[in-house]
Amino acid sequence: MTTDFVRAGEGYFAPDGRQIIYQAEEKGTGNPFYQIFAQDLATGRRWRVSPGVGKTTCAYFAPDRDKVIFASTHLDPDARAEYAKELAQREVDAKTGARRRYSWDFDQHMDIFEANPDGTGLKRLTDAPGYDAEGSYSPDGKQIVFCSNRGGENNLELYVMDADGKNVRQLTKAPGCYNGGPFFSPDGKRVIFRADRKEPHRLQLYVIDVDGKNEKALTDDDGWVHWGPYWYKDGQHIVWAGADHSKTPPNYDLYWMDVDRKKRVRLTYHPGTDVLPVFSKDGKKLMWTSTRGGAGAQIYLADFVAPEE
User: Fold this and answer.
1) Is there a smaller number of Cβ atoms within 10 Å at the N or the C end of the chain?
2) 10-297 belongs to which CATH class?
3) Considering the entire predicted model, what is its pTM?
4) Which contacts qualify for 86-94: CB closer than 8 Å, 24 or more apart?
5) How far is CA 9 from the centre of its chain?
6) What integer pLDDT is reported at residue 291 of this predicted model?
7) Per-residue pLDDT reduced to its tens digit, 155-164
8) 73 — phi, psi (to 5°)?
């Protein structure tokens, strides 16, 4: 779906399945960080939604109206100063042949914004000190679940707010851990997410009711990292990316699971990284981020048929 960006990933479908929204690094702009783009699937026409300054991530379509959300640091007065640091590090990596491990810096200037799909009508939804990102809407479009460290720099918890940014409440309570990448179930009653409760950076999958009750772990694998879980249309199954980090290098592939029985089915068998899978609303398409093309990560799309278990 993408080919001419430096890198692209984390794509999501519009409710009608006709467009996608994703993050990508443009060539020739001088900004080495992701910006948000939308793309028409029928024509291939694409356009930038975000302001073009700073870092952006985690875009998502509203299910009930013509709006999108994404997280951005464009209000940081020093946003452009970060460009030189990143570009200098890339030069060092190129000279030494170093391959940097993926990391996310939880930029304290990251906030969640709402906009029209063409980028107009930009509106800030979060303004608490600290990192606010990784947001997604409830099925009725009335709420947004997101990750924030507003309770302390090392306390990355999940919160739920109204779609206009009001009435924020804390969902998870696991101090000192990262809890992120949340998505409401299709019926709006549960939230799937990832967290490193047992060991730093060793993400496992969890599910919790929207009232904060009945939290349970779906994976518990020493040495593995599981992340990017996303619901299938039936609200019973999920897809996600996982890799055994006891192997060098770890290879991320996509997996399928019944969240109650916890039975897994492996979906991809490809050398290279397959991560951040999502379904179209009707469940007929699967989209994910992959390095299988040999260059930077790009977005891939395929037909999907639920596997037999």
Assistant:
1) C
2) mainly beta
3) 0.95
4) 86/32, 86/33, 87/32, 90/32
5) 9
6) 93
7) 999 999 999 9
8) -110, 20
List Cβ neighbours of 94 (8 Å cut-off, separation of 6 or more).
Answer: none
CB 154 within 8 A of CB 172: no
Q: List, in order, residues 6 or more apart from 21 with CB less than 8 Å away.
A: 11, 12, 14, 36, 37, 38, 39, 49, 59, 60, 61, 68, 70, 117
Question: Token pair of 169, please?
Answer: 């409440």
Q: What CA–CA distances, in Å, run from 34 to 50, 52, 182, 231, 244?
A: 10, 9, 20, 25, 27
What are the residues facing 24 on neighbouring strands?
8, 35
Compute the distance between CA of residue 144 and CA of residue 184 in angstroms, rounded to an integer: 9
144 token code pair: 């947004």
Query: Any bridge partners for residue 240, and if so which?
Result: 255
100 — pLDDT class (breaks 50, 70, 90): confident
- Please tell me the number of Cα atoms within 13 Å of 286 on its side-chain side: 26
